[in-house]
Amino acid sequence: MRISTIRQRRAHSAVQRRTFKQVAAAIPTRSIEAPSITPHFPEEPGCASIVVDCKSGIAQIEIANGGNTGTVSYDCSLSGQKTYSVTLELGVFNPSAPLRLEVLGCNGRVKRTPDAWKMTTQDVIHIDNSNIVLRKQSATGIDVRTSNGDEEADEIPDGHKWAVLLQEKGANGKLTRAKTIDLRIGAILDGAVVYYEDGHTTPCGLRYGHGGAKHYFGGGNSQKLHIPPGVDIVKVEVNRFGWGNQVLGGIIMTLSDGTKAGCLNGHWLASSMFKNNDVKVMEAGVGEKIIGFFGTSVHYTNEFGIITGPAGVELPPQTYDMAELQNIQARDWAGNK
């Protein structure tokens, strides 16, 4: 074969590769993630809303509130102007009747909630006999199932609901400060363990496994975050893609002095599939600070979030006796699942 022929074929192959890359880059990618329904609480009282989002675009929203029903459709065509986010002001709905929402994404995924009013009470905590309000935000594991039969797949699993504060009562009933957080990470996020100055520990996750035995976290990529006095946790990053349906992949925490610990276990496949929406960054709002964590665990961690409170304000003593701010688990919980 002539050298000139070989060069021509190589040149032709190079052109084909460039053309393939150009065509592949030109093909629009569509997120497989289901729509989300998120309550939003601005600083102004009485202005709460529900925000509906979908990375692939919103096709339709069905609303039922008491005897009133309605459907709003949106353009999903490739040439059309897609709608990716819609805000529903809660003030126009009847709070005494269930507010049912069903959202269809342009990718065919469905997200529904039987009563959005219940969602609006889950993201704030009112301290008993006080005007102090704590706020919650969380990251939940991405469900990679894409069939239309999995319409409820993005709901948080029915696991153990837990909360852990960065100040907690010890055995003597006195408050003690969190000094270390052991972030238990393997191929996915197992959980975390908070160590307090008086020597006791509290898990962010299961206390007991099957049979009522103490639950131990695994984690070959685990790291400990040491918290000096006067230093706060200012940021929590969570990888929502944990290789299993609705399981978190990893976590990094950052202190106010710049110290970081943890491992996200990020993967190019997840970033490509979910358009970098696989990592959620959680920080306290203006005038607030992170005072604890909460989440849901079945075996590994399915949800991990932060609890924020007003900065510079000492929380009243009854805060630390509220059940919803503690990790309380019956020994036979796992056996009943």
What labels describe this entry?
single chain; 337 residues; mainly beta; Immunoglobulin-like; Vitelline Membrane Outer Layer Protein I, subunit A; 2 domains; 5-stranded antiparallel beta sheet; 21 strands; disordered N terminus
Which strand order does the major sheet show?
8-9-21-20-10
Count structural domains.
Answer: 2
> Could you estimate the helical fraction of the residues in percent?
10-25%
Based on the structure given, which CATH architecture of the largest domain is correct? Aligned Prism
Layout of helices and strands:
Blueprint lengths: L2 H24 L9 E5 L8 E5 L4 E8 L2 E6 L11 E5 L9 E7 L4 E4 L2 H4 L4 E3 L6 E8 L19 E6 L1 E3 L5 E11 L3 E8 L4 E4 L18 E4 L6 E7 L10 E6 L4 E4 L4 H7 L4 E5 L4 E10 L3 E10 L27
Antiparallel strand pairs: 1-2, 2-5, 3-4, 3-6, 6-7, 8-9, 9-21, 10-20, 11-12, 12-13, 12-15, 13-14, 16-17, 16-19, 17-18, 20-21
Can you characterise this structure?
The protein has 337 residues and is mainly beta. It folds into two domains: 36-119, Immunoglobulin-like (Sandwich); 124-336, Vitelline Membrane Outer Layer Protein I, subunit A. Helix content is 10%, strand content 38%. It has helices spanning 3-26, 116-119, 268-274; strands spanning 36-40, 49-53, 58-65, 68-73, 85-89, 99-105, 110-113, 124-126, 133-140, 160-165, 167-169, 175-185, 189-196, 201-204, 223-226, 233-239, 250-255, 260-263, 279-283, 288-297, 301-310. The strands form five sheets. It has a five-stranded antiparallel β-sheet, with no helix packed on it. Strands 11, 12, 13, 14 and 15 form a five-stranded antiparallel β-sheet that branches. A four-stranded antiparallel β-sheet has the order 4-3-6-7, with no helix packed on it. Strand 20 (288-297) and strand 21 form a beta hairpin. The radius of gyration is 24 Å and the shape is globular. The protein starts with a helix and ends in a 27-residue tail after the last strand. The model is unreliable at 1-8, 19-28 and 146-154 (pLDDT under 50).
